[in-house]
Every structure is written in structure tokens, then in C-alpha cells.
Design goal:
five-stranded antiparallel beta sheet, alpha+beta, 12 strands, about 20% strand, single chain, about 55% helix, 10 helices, five-stranded mixed beta sheet
């Protein structure tokens, strides 16, 4: 608020000072030019009259002093005549003519240049005057100087009056501006202060906040941005809560199974071989499940911390995907499912073999997890211009369109209880992005989901 008021106040003060100074200067120049023009016209007329009718008369010097009184009756200016020695020999004010100790500068200039001179000066009594001096000639010889002097006091008084008016106008303008700036500051600062208070509540953990966007200006846009950010924050909070709930469940289930079979095996005779085998197999599976969950969390943490290392090498994408399919075939057979692979021969890309393999295995795991028994998973490796392309498609239930944009967000699990930690697709997406590739998911309800990965081919 202080910056707004100070800015507007300084702006008006500077603008007022500039306009005022320009106005006063313009008026003073206008008045001065008019006065100069009027006095010059009179001086030129009298000088011309002398040159035409009196300059060549006999004994002109003896009559020269009387011309000051004659010319003075025709103008309000004071008329003086100096001879060629700089002595005052005539004055329309009928003053006693006494020798002048110091010759006026304008008379000196006229005598020296033998030309008209226009001079502003101040008399010893402090009066500002304008002087126009014109040389007088007789038979082409300089015989004196005709001087017209007019006071500038009336002009200065007028300018002073106008200046006072300008100053008062500037003060009034500044007062109005300060009032307007206070009102403007209030309209800007008050909503910002309210937003600041609500933002502090938000920072303290209070989420039931709404920012009023009553205007369409920048303040309103800021309020809308806060509301959008708050909605996203609330959504992320909800995702976090769901993740904590789901990860607790994901951890509790295998731990419960492991503990249960450990207790069971503790009470089982060693000669009951089948029970031991089944128990150890389930313990191994649940341990692997826990290990995979921990690996996902560690991978995500490294990605978020920027500690992920990608070691680029030439990777035979066709061979790598084929190996992944081989690894998942036994599981597909147990689930009475098929994995069908179509691959161009030797599609090479630049990338990290282990990380890309992690992506393909995760996609195959999701397809097997969310597809029904008897369905088919189609995998393809193709070469398209400068890209190596991998597609993994299933015939599962599909993903709703409102959920599809969020499935690669960390911890997002949608409404499917089998979605695990919600980190798998997020990690896959980030791995592909670290390879300067693209990760696209398309899906139709009741028809299935297809994931398409494009990676830059190796030279």
C-alpha cells in the first residue's frame, strides 16, 4: 500500500512540476515576446522617423536630446537618447541629466556593433527591465543611440500569480491522487491481505479454505490460482492418505501370511513334507512381494531425489522384450493366459538395459494382474522411423477416462484394490522420460488398455 501511494504521489508531483514549469516558462516566453515585439515596433518606427526626416538636418546634434521627450509621448516605455560618447542627453522621464559613471551594457553593445540590441537587465533599485537600443546615424556616421526601456514587473507579477495557481492546482491534484491511490491500495491490498491470512491457515494445515475471486483482474486470477492449487493439494492429500492405507495393507498382508505359515510350520512335524513345501513356497512368494514393494519405494525415492543413474548403451530392444516375455510366460500359464509377441528383428535403442527391462516387466505384470483368465496379452516391438516402439496391450476391464490422466502420478491407485503401491506406472513413466522417450497409455472400458513406449533408436 505504501509503495502504491508513494509511486502515485511521486508521479503526480513530478508530472505536476514538469507541466507547471513548462506552462510558466511558456507563458513567460509568450509575454516577453509580446512585450519585445511591441517595444521593437515603436523603436523601429521612431528610429525610421529620425533617419528619414531629421538625420540630415543642420545642427542635428543640438536637437537630438529633445527627441526623447517627443518619442516618449507615443509609448508607455521610457525613452532615452545617448550620444556617440555614451552620454545621456535625453530622457522622457524628465530626469535631471547627470553624467553616468558606468555605461549600460546594452548601450555599449549598440555603440560597438552599431546594430540593434535587445537586453534584459535589472536596475540598481531591483526593477527588472527590457531594453531595446537602436543606433542613430547622420550622413552615415553614428551619432547616438535610441533606447527604449520597459519594466517587466507587471509581467513578473502576472507570472507569479499564475505560478501560485499552478502550485495550488498541483497540491489539489496530489491530494486527489493520494485519495484515489488510498482507495486503489485498499482495493488491491485488502484482498491480498485476506489471501495472505488464508494462505497462513493453509500453511498451518487447515484445508477448509476458499479464496474469493470476485474480480477478473490479476488479484482475481491469483485467487483462482490459489483455489486450483488448493484443490490439487487436497487431492494429493487424499492420495497420500489412500497410499498410507494401501501400503499398510500391502505390508500387513504378506507379513500376516509369513507369520501365519511360520507359526504353522513351527507346529508341523518335519515328516509332513507337503505342508513344509507349501509353507516355504508361500513364504518365499510373500517375501518377494515385500521385496518388490520396498524396491519400488526406493526407486521412487531415488527418482524424486535426482539420484537415479541411467547408463546409456546400445540395447537390442527386440531381444530384451523377448527375454521379459520368457520370464513372465510361466506366470501367464498358471493364470491360463497367453502372451503373444510380434517383433521386428534387432531394433536397437540407446538406453539402460536394466531400467528398460524393469519397465517392460512392470507393464507385463500389470497386464497379467488386471486381465481375466483365458485372455491374451499382445506385445509388439517395431521400428518406426527414428524410434524403437514397444506396445503392451491387454483385454482387461480398461481404465475410466477421468482416471486415465492420473494413473502415472505417484501413489495414485484409482478405485482398484489390486493397484498395489501406485508407484509402478509412475516409475515406468519417469524411466522412459529419462531416456528422452514417450510413455502413452490408451484405454477403453471393457476392451482393455494399451501402453506405447517410444525410444530413440541407436545409430
Amino acid at each position: 500500500r505504501k509503495r502504491i501511494i508513494l509511486t502515485y504521489g511521486l508521479l503526480i508531483a513530478l508530472l505536476g512540476a514538469l507541466v507547471g514549469a513548462t506552462l510558466i516558462f511558456t507563458l513567460k516566453t509568450f509575454y516577453l515576446n509580446n512585450i519585445t515585439a511591441m517595444v521593437r515596433v515603436q523603436a523601429e518606427q521612431d528610429s525610421s522617423f529620425f533617419q528619414n526626416y531629421q538625420a540630415n538636418q543642420p545642427n542635428v546634434l543640438s536637437h537630438l536630446g529633445n527627441l526623447a521627450t517627443q518619442f516618449g509621448t507615443e509609448t508607455k516605455a521610457r525613452v532615452q537618447i545617448f550620444n556617440d560618447q555614451g552620454q545621456l542627453i535625453g530622457d522622457s522621464n524628465n530626469v535631471i541629466l547627470t553624467p553616468i559613471s558606468t555605461l549600460p551594457i546594452d548601450i555599449q553593445r549598440s555603440l560597438q556593433s552599431q546594430k540593434e540590441t535587445v537586453t534584459q537587465m535589472t536596475f540598481p533599485n531591483g526593477e527588472p527591465v527590457l531594453s531595446i537600443s537602436m543606433p542613430l546615424f547622420s550622413n552615415h556616421h553614428l551619432i547616438g543611440v535610441l533606447r527604449f526601456v520597459t519594466s517587466l514587473l507587471p509581467m513578473n507579477e502576472t507570472i507569479s500569480t499564475i505560478s501560485i495557481g499552478v502550485v495550488l492546482f498541483i497540491v489539489l491534484a496530489m491530494a486527489i491522487t493520494l485519495a484515489v491511490s488510498l482507495l486503489l491500495a485498499r482495493t488491491v491490498v485488502l484482498p491480498l491481505r485476506k489471501m495472505s491470512e488464508k494462505a497462513n491457515k493453509l500453511a498451518s494445515g487447515y484445508r477448509d479454505v476458499f479464496f474469493d475471486a470476485t474480480t477478473k483482474d490479476e488479484v482475481g486470477q491469483l485467487a483462482n490460482a490459489f483455489n486450483v492449487a488448493l484443490q490439487e493439494l487436497n487431492r494429493l492429500d487424499q492420495i497420500k492418505k489412500e497410499f498410507i492405507h494401501s501400503i499398510s495393507h500391502e505390508l500387513r498382508t504378506p507379513l500376516t501370511s509369513i507369520k501365519g505359515f511360520v507359526v504353522t510350520l513351527g507346529y508341523t512335524n518335519k515328516d509332513e513334507e507337503q505342508i513344509w513345501r507349501d509353507g516355504l513356497r508361500i513364504i518365499e512368494q510373500e517375501t518377494d512381494r515385500l521385496s518388490n514393494l520396498v524396491d519400488e519405494l526406493l526407486d521412487f525415492n531415488r527418482l524424486e531425489a535426482g539420484q537415479w543413474v541411467i547408463r546409456f548403451n546400445r540395447v537390442n530392444l527386440s531381444e530384451m522384450v523377448w527375454n521379459c516375455v520368457d520370464l513372465m510366460q510361466p506366470r501367464a500359464e498358471r493364470q491360463i493366459m497367453k502372451i503373444k509377441l510380434h517383433s521386428d528383428k534387432d531394433v536397437w535403442v540407446e538406453g539402460d538395459y536394466d531400467r528398460l527391462k524393469q519397465v517392460i516387466l512392470n507393464l507385463l505384470d500389470n497386464s497379467l494382474k488386471f486381465s481375466n483368465s483365458g485372455s491374451e496379452i499382445s506385445v509388439a516391438v517395431l521400428s518406426e522411423e527414428e524410434y524403437g516402439v514397444v506396445t503392451v496391450g491387454d483385454n482387461g476391464p480398461g481404465i475410466p477416462h477421468d482416471i486415465l490422466p492420473h494413473v502415472t502420478e505417484p501413489f495414485y491407485r484409482g478405485t482398484n484394490a489390486a493397484a498395489g503401491s501406485g508407484l509402478g506406472l509412475s516409475i515406468c513413466n519417469q524411466i522412459v522420460e529419462h531416456h528422452n522417450g514417450t510413455f502413452d497409455i490408451s484405454s477403453e472400458l471393457e476392451k482393455g488398455t494399451t501402453v506405447t513406449i517410444r525410444l530413440i533408436q541407436a545409430c
